[in-house]
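Worked example 2:
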Amino acid sequence: MASPREKEDNVVIGRRLREARLAAGLSQAKVGKVLSASGQTIYDYEKGRSTIAPSDLFKLAQFFGKPIEWFFGIEPKETQVTIQVGSQEPEDLDKFLESLPADHLVKALAKQLGIPERAAWSVYLGLQAAKAAADAPSGSGGK
């Protein structure tokens, strides 16, 4: 059962989803196609009756061109986030980031962006999904 905080988040996310959908002039069924879900599922999200998966929230954020924190009712700040990595190569940075516990990365991300940890988890999981998709071999199911 969802906690009171999760229920509150579901309502806020649902309202924002509806706002973005209406601003784009789309039906619930059309938004559902983005997630391979039904219009009824989108209706349930918009009413706060269901919890949206972080990966689906990430897809919707990309689709509507909104930062994830916007769905949590947080207006994004005009800030630029810079990570100082010195002379490290991207592969070294990947190894470094993979060596850190996820909860530490999420707490740092939440603090740096000024967003709730729950929103930072959504960002983190979305980034992980995007990285996995980018690292996946391309082709027609080839081994």
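The mean pLDDT is 80. Helices lie at 4-24, 28-34, 39-46, 54-64, 68-71, 90-99, 102-113, 117-135.
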